[in-house]
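[09:14] KT: can someone run the structure on this one? pasting the chain below
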Amino acid sequence: MKTVAFIIPPTVELLDLAGPAQVFTEAKVHGMDINIQFFSYSDDPVSTAGIGFGQIANFKTAILKEGDFIFVPGMDNEYVNSIAFKAERSFFNWLKECSDRGITVCSICTGAFALGHAGLLKDTECTTHWRRVEALQKQFPQARVKADILYVKSNNVYTSAGISAGIDLALAILEELKGALFTHKVARGLVVYHRRSGTHNQQSVYLDYRNHIHPQIHEVQDYMIENLSKENDIESLAEMVGMSPRNLSRVFKEKTGSTVLEYLTLLRKEFASTMLNNPEYTIEYVASRCGFKSSRQLKRILKN
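[09:31] RB: done, C-alpha cells below
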C-alpha cells in the first residue's frame, strides 16, 4: 500500500492542503488502497485563514518507503521569507533523505521553497505560484524554474503552481497510479470535469469534454463510458435522461463541443487502444468489446 504524507507547516494555505488531500480521499472512496497521513514540523500549526489544526504528528515519526509521496503545501509568503522558516534544517534534511530513498516529494505553490532549501531543485525543472516565480529563481539560481505552467514532474520531484493547481497535480499522479478511467471517476466525484495537464495540452477522453455542469449530459457520458459495447443510439440515450433526441443532440454539442457520435467514437477508440496492449486479446475480440461492427471498422478508425 502506498502512503501519501501531507506536511502541515505554519501559515499553510488551506486549499493547497485540502485540494490534493481530497483527491486521494475520493480515490479511497472508489476502492484505491492508499494510506493518507498528516505531519507537521511545528507545534499547533495555524492556517493563513486562522484555522488551527491542534496536535499533529511530527514528521520524524513518519514511516515512508520507496514509491510513497510527500506533499508540501504553500505557506504565507512572509513566513517563507522569514528566518524561522529558513532555520528548519532538520525538516529540509529529512525531505532530501526521503527523496534519496525514492520517495516522490511534491510541492504546491510556495511549498517549492522548502524543496529548494532541501537541495531538491538543483538542475531540476520546477514551478510555483506565478507571483513567486522570480523569487524562487533568485533564491535558487541552479533551479530551472518554469513560468506559466501548472505543474512539472522532474525525476521524483513534482512541483505545482498555486492553489487549484495542486488538484491538477494530484489527479496527474493518480492517473499514473490507477489510469485515466479511474481518475475520471475520482474527478467526477470532485465535480472537476476538466483535467488540466502540466502544460494544459495533454488530453484524456475520459476527463476532457466534461467542462460543464449539465447533469443529464454527464449521465449520458457516464453511461456511454460504462456501456461501449451497446448500440448507444441517440433515441435510447435521450429516453434514458428524459430528453428528445433532437434536444439531446443540441445540448450535448453545446456543452461538450462534440456530437454524441464523435464522443462515442473517441471513447471506443481510446478503450480499444488500451485493450490492444494486451497480447492475449485478438483484434476481433477488442472490436466486439468496444462496440465496433467488425475488426475492419476498428482498424480503419485507429488508422485515422
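[09:33] KT: thanks! Residues 14-29 form the longest helix (16 residues).
[09:34] RB: yep, looked fine to me
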